[in-house]
Write a structure and sequence with these properties.
The complex is a heterodimer of chains A (about 270) and B (about 270).
Chain A lengths: L7 H4 L6 E10 L3 E11 L4 E5 L6 H8 L7 E6 L2 E2 L5 H8 L2 E4 L11 H6 L8 H6 L4 H13 L15 H14 L4 E5 L7 H16 L3 E5 L3 H7 L2 E6 L2 E7 L5 H8 L4 H8 L2
Helix pairs in contact in A: 6-7, 7-8
Chain B lengths: L20 H23 L4 H18 L7 H32 L8 H16 L2 H12 L3 H25 L4 H7 L5 H35 L7 H10 L3 H27 L3
Helix pairs in contact in B: 2-10, 3-6, 3-8, 3-10, 4-6, 5-6, 5-8, 6-8, 7-8, 8-9, 8-10, 9-10
Classes of the chains: A alpha/beta (about 270), B mainly alpha (about 270).
Chain lengths: ~270, ~270
């Protein structure tokens, strides 16, 4: 199937912040979304997940966040298996994982700062959340996170008055404020123009520089090559390739998009 | 000058027979509507001759009503205030009761479908019974006076408001709530922080609408003995005190106009 035998053993799990092992997910009896995916991610590492539509990227991300329960396999974060957790335990585990969405998912009527403070929801006292009166320490932290993504001057602007790229950077600041160990970004730049995409990916790199592991699924191969430390290629629910960016086999990319239509093939060919 | 057809040839178009399925449907619908209205006309006992005979009587009342009686203006204004207060207390009580119920009755945020259906049934029952009917029952239970009106308004408005609020909640995009829940925050925090800002303007607007509506509705409640300006209206009508009746009608119009404009002004500023 693949050119290498990627897996946990190949990369090692020592010092890993997240270890996914043998993830299998089927929909119905014959649709195999994931067929035994394993990998580990270290703190500060930036991993790009590539693959054509239907390759299992979204299912993989949903398993990594506990939104979907895999049929087999485990996702261990901080010694806690997310796939076995439920209720309160799952909520505790989720604190370590911050999500970035394609559609940003900011609360549009709140300011950028308040949206970043949403990252403190789990820790803040309930009355402070209800009255939207966060502690000074939380407010200072949130402002710092906005500074990190270069949006300190927009702190008090309403979310729906920001551009798409700015909204996505606010979402990254929210992930930073959450003090998560891992940022999972599902198609973070798919609805952005090239310039905004670049600044958003820069912000994700800034988060990684602060020690957070970043896993981002991308559609554009050239973005993955310029942004990631490591590239994971998925096809038909299986790991096709898992290698550092520098030694990533371009032939694997061609294989990756081989059956994914002309548009994608052209994208890969321009590299 | 006619525009030349690009392509320059006759394109075939579908041939519609004179008795097509859609034309048949239209004829059946037209016959059904005609039948419905002719039956309704008879059931409602519409009789233009009676109206023609009655109009001069009304005109003579209008002549007798001038000039309006002002000797009891103080009392009447107090009764009008009673009506506004009845509507305000009833609507506010309804809003407070509706707050928890609208969460149960909104498909996207209800904690469980086991609670969703009973909540919906309960709200439909409250909504199905008019405040007038509730007031009639409460007059028998708690005696004559505005309090019976307050209870009647509260119960009917509870059902109506909670249903509209639940629909407002169901219409908001799920993304921001998902994003807030993904931080590991509890349900109460997520709803208070991510849902409330989005639906609050709509909720306040709906609440104001119901207050406005209830001010108009509660003028009628006086007829069943539930106090307010409506009670004076009925007394004057029973005693054929036309000048007093005119004063009361003018007062009601003034009251409703002021409240409509006030609440419209507030609602415009909510966006």
């Amino acid at each position: 199937m693949g050119t290498t035998t990627p897996g946990v053993s190949a990369n090692g799990t020592a010092g890993a912040v997240m270890v996914a092992e043998g993830l299998i997910k089927r929909y119905g009896s014959d649709v195999r979304a994931l067929g035994g995916v394993s990998f580990a991610v270290r703190p500060g590492e930036v991993v790009a997940v590539l693959g054509p539509s239907g390759a299992g990227k979204t299912t993989l991300f949903r398993c990594l966040t506990g939104l979907t329960r895999p049929d087999a396999g485990s996702v261990v974060i901080n010694g806690r298996d997310l796939t076995q957790a439920s209720g309160r335990e799952l909520r505790m585990a989720r604190r370590d994982v911050a999500l970035i969405f394609q559609q940003f998912n900011l609360i549009r009527r709140l300011t950028a700062l308040q949206n970043v403070l949403a990252g403190r929801l789990a820790q803040a006292q309930t009355w402070r959340v209800v009255l939207r009166r966060f502690a000074r320490a939380d407010r200072q932290l949130a402002l710092g996170c906005l500074d990190t993504v270069g949006l300190l001057d927009k702190s008090y602007a309403r979310a729906d008055q920001l551009s798409g790229g700015q909204q996505q950077r606010v979402a990254i600041a929210r992930a930073l404020a959450q003090d998560a160990k891992i940022i999972l970004a599902d198609e973070p730049v798919a609805s952005l123009d090239p310039e905004s995409s670049a600044t958003v990916l820069e912000s994700l790199r800034a988060a990684a520089a602060a020690g957070v592991a970043v896993i981002a699924s991308l559609h554009q191969v050239h973005l993955a090559r310029s942004f990631a430390d490591r590239i994971i290629a998925l096809r038909e629910g299986a790991l096709l390739e898992d290698a550092p960016n520098a030694s990533f086999d371009s032939r694997a990319l061609e294989q990756l998009y081989e059956r994914a239509g002309d548009r994608l093939r052209n994208t890969a060919a321009t590299l | 000058m006619t525009l030349a057809v690009p392509g320059g040839r006759g394109y075939p178009e579908p041939v519609v027979s004179w008795l097509s399925a859609s034309r048949l449907r239209f004829i059946v619908l037209a016959v059904a509507l005609a039948g419905f209205y002719s039956v309704s006309w008879h059931l409602a006992q519409v009789d233009p001759a009676k109206l023609a005979a009655g109009l001069p009587k009304m005109a003579s009342w209008a002549v007798k009503a001038w000039p309006p009686a002002t000797d009891e203006l103080g009392v009447l204004i107090q009764r009008a205030a009673e009506t506004v207060a009845m509507a305000a207390i009833g609507t506010t009580a309804a809003a407070i009761l509706a707050l928890p119920l609208c969460v149960l009755a909104a498909r996207n945020v209800t904690p469980s479908m086991i609670l969703y259906y009973p909540a919906r049934w309960f709200l439909n029952a409250l909504r199905g019974i008019d405040s007038f009917v509730f007031a009639l029952l409460f007059v028998a239970a708690v005696g004559l006076g505005p309090f019976a009106g307050v209870l009647g308004i509260a119960l009917h408005t509870w059902g109506s408001t909670a249903k509209l609020w639940a629909e407002a909640i169901e219409n908001i995009p799920p993304g921001p709530i998902e994003a807030a829940a993904a931080t590991g925050a509890s349900r109460v925090k997520v709803l208070a922080f991510a849902l409330l800002p989005d639906v609050a303007p709509n909720m306040v607007s709906t609440g104001l609408f119901w207050w406005e509506f209830n001010v108009r509705a509660s003028t009628v409640l006086g007829v069943v003995g539930a106090g307010g300006i409506g009670q004076e209206l009925k007394n004057s009508m029973d005693l054929l005190l036309f000048p007093r009746l005119l004063t009361i009608i003018a007062l009601i119009l003034a009251m409703v106009t002021v409240i409509d404009h006030g609440s419209e002004w507030v609602r415009r500023r909510l966006e």
